[in-house]
From TrEMBL:
Gene: SEL1L
Name this protein carries in UniProt: Protein sel-1 1
Residue stretches spanning the membrane: 806-824
Region (Disordered): 38-71, 203-242
Signal peptide: 1-33
Length: 830
């Protein structure tokens, strides 16, 4: 009979009470079946016997195990391991039915001796003293090392052998095919046991090729331990086919053309299309977008749909799923279908598409097509905000310009913050002449972007250098920022950044002080010093610099060099957010989402995360859409605004509604323009845009895209008047009270609303004056109708006062007055 003895041990490092340690040591003892006699001494000296039975011939009955046994937690020292192995080497169990040759016994003894020597070497490599306890991780490594592996069946047992690397690997492939489970029963024993305290009924194995360890928190007598998971195999990339190689070459060539100094977009996109036709995923995305937005290729929604469906079905692309959702939601290239749109959005969001996550976050927040759920909106928006936060540098990212087409149309001559080309050229002329303020201003514009100026760090560096040479502190500080952050234009250089920051800080410049604070906070080019960092940040924050406020919030939040204070962190984060710093919004959102330093508010957290998400690089599409509309590419502008409207941008929603309201488009049927415009006006109104709220009222008042409903119109005007103090809404309410439309006719309330409109906006004073004059006439007529005119003038006789021809006198007077008016209007002749 073959017997395989193993033990394993583990202990708890922090508690000195009971530690589970069981050491699994594979040891094969060949028993001569001829000697049937077993002495009492041999039975008493048998310390730790493990019976290995084949899964093919026998099974261990769970009923044989003592269900009342308690787990053993004990310490076993290396000296005990040595003694056990030495004693086990000398033991020779003898069974009746087993026959073996003398050569087998000799081989067994030699292998046992080698096993002891290898075990000693392995333990010595761990640098563990004899009195130290071996951790279960180290023993597991020893036991499962390749020199001591054991594989066998009931008919055949393979002993530990000196195998070469190749022989061992082949052995593993051939023998390690049987999944097994190790069952261990452990009995409570003396706190300081020896191996002789254990008996052979306490550990059972069923054809286990390797040994597992019981975790320290075992609470039951019998524990089933699965085999350690196999090492993951490195998946080799399949070799590309000739077609795939060709597509890859075409794609990479197109990318090189676009990245060249003089890119040829038409040629590059033609190559992208060829690569897409060869099933190249990234090329297919680019081609689909080009047809969808009308960039480079003529706008073709049918072709765009073809490419997106191809990518979604053949490649499972979340990107394509998201665009299909957009097309179904907005009714582009196919009739609107909300259910299909939500389905595609959901698949894309689960696949990790950022835009789809924004769409689902907005829809859960606003309850559009799904049940309103703040927590779901929080989950989606937090994922997007995290991506934006990771991409942003300390400067807060580029500026996202939000221009409302309605405001621009109502205020003729206004460019809504966009600098005119002539004005930019004028500033460039001043900068070239040496005007320092113009140099700094243009440098900041090109550094951050915005107001119609694209981000261009090369130009920013040039202007800052000129202004810094003239001694301008702001220019020095911004040069420090550029060198601290590094980029394509300038390489990151802490020494240069420190030089410029120091020069600016010496002039008490808050930007320079904040930069020095950052360097001391993170130990960039200088020793890390929280006290100095706090000092510089405080000086910058006291001067109102947003970066100083943000970093002070970070220091209070994390307790860097100062006591952690969440209230102070919120204070400084709020100050920074009022200046529009994206990272401040993100930090506040995290605190409100987790209830750190304030009461948890899901609504506030969602609004803040939404603000951060909308500051992502995709927000630059707002300016692209504005430029398209300004250049007369209305269809292309509308598509971009509709996409951004789906992402939840309120400005995009109102601009899409404005373009649809004008009706000068051809991608939307004429009979659907007002209906779709009303939808976008309603969404923008839901996000607090008062003009959109008034527009919703107007659409219900006149019946645009819906039925005429004066009550709904009046309700919309009331919301805009009471919550948003909109003068137009107040004027409309006055008119509806005057006419009795949708509410009770009341001239007094009408006058009250007219007066409120005049007080709210100076622009409303002239129309209010005319409305009040009209109201006065109506009021007088109404009063006269209520009076008895004959009783009012009983004794008046015009014949007695003016004579019988009094009517001629009046006619002559009116004619003279009319002549005078005509004369003065025509002016002198000749």
């Amino acid at each position: 009979m073959w017997a395989k003895t193993s033990s394993s041990m583990c202990r708890s490092h922090h508690r000195k009470v009971l530690v589970l340690v069981y050491v699994l040591i594979l040891l094969v003892i060949t028993v001569n079946a001829k000697d049937k006699k077993k002495t009492a001494d041999e039975q008493n000296s048998q310390t730790f016997t493990q019976t290995v039975e084949s899964t093919q011939n026998s099974k261990i009955d769970d009923d044989d195990m003592d269900s009342n046994t308690k787990p053993l937690f004990t310490d076993l020292r290396t000296s005990q391991v040595y003694n056990f192995v030495e004693n086990s080497k000398k033991k020779k169990d003898k069974t009746e039915d087993y026959k073996t040759s003398s050569s087998s016994e000799e081989t067994s003894d030699i292998l046992n001796q080698k096993l002891v020597e290898k075990l000693r070497k392995e333990i010595e490599m761990l640098n563990i003293n004899d009195d130290e306890v071996i951790s279960h991780e180290d023993l597991y490594r020893i036991i499962t090392s390749k020199e001591k592996e054991f594989y066998g069946t009931a008919e055949e047992t393979m002993l530990f052998q000196e195998l070469s690397e190749e022989e061992f690997e082949q052995l593993i492939k051939n023998e390690n095919k049987i999944e097994t489970t190790t069952k261990i029963t452990i009995k409570e024993v003396d706190p300081n046991p020896t191996f002789s305290d254990l008996n052979s009924n306490e550990i059972y194995h069923t054809s286990s090729p390797t040994h597992s360890l019981v975790p320290p928190d075992v609470s039951s007598a019998t524990v089933e331990i699965p085999e350690p998971p196999p090492k993951p195999k490195v998946k080799e990339e399949p070799e590309l086919t000739e077609e795939e190689k060709q597509a890859k070459v075409l794609y990479e060539t197109a990318v090189m053309i676009l990245n060249s100094t003089k890119p040829d977009k038409k040629r590059a996109y033609d190559l992208f299309k060829q690569a897409a036709e060869l099933n190249h995923l990234e090329a297919g995305k680019i081609v689909g977008q080009a047809y969808f937005f009308g960039d480079v290729f003529p706008q073709n929604l049918t072709a765009a749909r073809y490419w997106f469906e191809k990518l979604a079905t053949e490649k499972g692309s979340p990107f394509a799923q998201m665009y299909l959702g957009l097309m179904y939601a907005a009714g582009l290239g196919n009739p609107p279908h909300l259910a299909k749109a939500i389905l595609h959005y959901t698949f894309a969001a689960l696949g990790g598409d950022t835009w789809a996550q924004m769409v689902m976050g907005y829809r859960h927040w606003a309850g559009l097509g799904v049940v309103p759920n703040c927590e779901s909106a929080l989950t989606y928006y937090r994922k997007v905000a995290k991506k934006v936060e990771e991409e942003l540098s300390t400067n807060g990212g580029s500026v996202i310009q939000r221009i409302r087409l309605y405001d621009e149309a109502e205020n003729l001559g206004s460019t809504a913050g966009v600098l005119d080309d002539d004005l930019i050229q004028y500033y460039q002329f001043l900068a070239d002449k040496g005007d320092v303020q113009a140099q700094v201003g243009l440098g900041q514009l090109h550094y951050q972007g915005g107001r119609g100026v694209e981000q261009d760090h090369a130009r920013a560096l040039n202007y800052f250098m000129q202004a810094a040479d003239a001694g301008n502190a702001n220019a020095m500080a911004f040069l420090g920022k550029m060198y601290l952050e590094g980029g394509n234009v300038v390489k990151q250089n802490n020494e240069t950044a420190l030089k410029y920051f120091t020069m600016a800080a010496e002039k008490n410049n808050p930007v320079g002080q904040s930069g020095l604070g950052l360097m001391y906070l993170h130990g960039k080019g200088v020793p890390k010093d929280y006290n100095k960092a706090f000092k510089y940040f405080s000086s910058a924050a006291n001067q109102g610099w947003v970066d100083g406020q943000l970093q002070l919030g970070n220091m209070y939040y994390n307790g860097l060099g100062i006591s952690r204070d969440f209230k102070m962190a919120i204070k400084y984060y709020t100050m920074a957010s009022q200046s529009g710093h994206v990272l401040a919004f993100y930090s506040l959102a995290q605190m409100h989402a987790t209830g750190t330093g304030t009461v948890r508010s899901c609504t506030t957290a969602v609004e803040l995360f939404k603000n951060v998400a909308e500051r992502g690089r995709w927000g630059t599409n707002l300016m692209q859409a504005y430029s398209d509309n300004k250049e007369g590419r209305v269809n292309e502008a509308l598509i971009k605004y509709m996409v951004l409207a789906e992402l939840g941008y309120e400005v995009a929603q109102s601009n899409a509604a404005f373009i649809l309201d004008r009706g000068d488009i051809d991608i939307i049927p004429k009979n659907e323009t007002f209906y779709r415009a009303l939808m976008y006006w309603s969404r923008a109104a839901g996000q607090g845009y008062s003009v959109a709220r008034v527009k919703v009222g107007d659409y219900h008042y006149y019946g645009y895209g819906t039925e005429v409903d004066y009550e709904i119109a009046a309700n919309q005007y009331k919301i805009a008047s009471e919550q948003q103090h909109n003068a137009q809404a107040m004027f409309n309410l006055g008119y509806m009270h005057e006419q009795g439309l949708g509410m009770k006719k009341d001239i007094h309330l009408a006058k009250r609303y007219y007066d409120l409109a005049a007080e709210t906006s100076s622009d409303a004073q002239v129309p209010v004056a005319l409305a009040l004059a009209k109201l006065g006439v109506l009021y007088s007529l109404q009063h006269l109708q209520e009076m008895n005119f004959d009783s009012l003038l009983p004794n008046v006789n015009l014949n007695k006062i003016l004579g019988p021809d009094w009517d001629l006198y009046i006619m002559t007077t009116l004619a003279v007055m009319l002549g005078i008016v005509v004369y003065f209007r025509r002016g002198p002749q000749g």
